[in-house]
Amino acid sequence: MAAAFTEQHLLPVSKTVGQLVLTIEKELADSLLALNYSDSGVTHIYNPVDYARVPHEIFVTKFCKETISILLIGMNPGPWGMVQTGVPFGEVSIVRDWLNIIGEVIKPANEHPKRPILGFQCHRSEISGKRFWAFLRDLSGTPERLFETLFMYNYCPLSFMKISGKNVTPPELKLTERKILLSLCDAALLEVIKVLRPKSLLCVGNFVFKQVSGVVKKANLDVKVGLLMHPSPINPRANKNWAEEAKKTFDQLGISGYFSNLHDVTDA
Fold it and tell me: Which of 17, 151, 159 is nearest to 78 (CA)?
C-alpha cells in the first residue's frame, strides 16, 4: 500500500517556487510508482522526472516563476515528447532550439524495447507538442515573455505501457487502480496551485478539465478553469486548425491580453 500523498508540506521558506514544484512532482511520482497497475495490463512505467531529471529540472527552475497568472495543465507525458526530453509536450526541436534546454537523459531501469528512450537524439516528432509550442511561440515571441505569465504542469508525471508497447493513459486504467492514482494526482495538483497561485487554470483536454474542476470545487478555490482542445492528431478537429481554435479559447478566457501587454511593455 502506497503512502498517502500529504496535502500540506513543511518546506523551507528559502526554496523557490520551482524547487517546491519539483519536490511535489518527485513525491507524487514516488507515490504513484509504489502502486500496482497489473489489472490494467501495465508492464512498463516511465518516470521522466527521474531519468530525464537534468532537462526537466532546467525547465522548471528556469521558467517556473512567482509572477505567473496562468497554469497550463496537461495529462501525462507523451511517448515522443516529455518521455524523451523531460519537458511537457516537449518536442525535441522546440525544447532544444527555442527553449534552449538540453541535458543528459539516461535510460530508465525497465526500458520497453518498442519505446526506446533516445532523449535529444530522438528523431520522431511529437505532433501534439509541435502544434502546442508553435502556438505559444507565435503568441508570446520569446520563452522569457511566455513564462513571465504562464507555466506548464502535467497532472500525472508518469507514462504507462502494455507489453505490446501500447500507451495506457490514466483514464484507461482499471477503476480501482485509477481511483487511487487520481486521488494522489489531485492532492499534488492542489499543492502546486497553492504554491503558484495562478488566476487561471487552462486544461488540455476533457479528462484534465474534469479532474481540475473537481479539485477547484472541492477546495473552494477562487480561480478560473478553462478547457483547451487537445492538439493530438487523433482528434479530427485538431487536425483542421488547432492554433485558430486555441487562439479563440485564449481570447475567450482573457488570456491573450497578458501577452499583448507583454509585447507593449517590452517593445516600448
Answer: 159
Kindly report the CA angle at 90 between 223 and 40, in degrees rounded to 5? 80
Query: In the predicted model, what is the mean pLDDT of residues 188-196?
Result: 98
Model confidence pLDDT, tens digit, residues 108-160: 989 999 999 999 999 998 889 999 999 999 999 999 999 999 999 999 999 99
Q: What is the pTM of this model?
A: 0.90
Strand ranges inside 47-158, DSSP E: 70-74, 150-154
* Cβ neighbours, 10 Å, residue 125: 14
Find, among 28, 27, 18, the residue nearest to 56 by Cα. 18
C-alpha cell at 92: 525535441
Residue 257 CA: distances (Å) to CA of 139, 146, 152, 260: 10, 12, 18, 5
Look up cell 507583454; give the residue.
Answer: 262
For residue 230, give the DSSP letter.
Answer: -
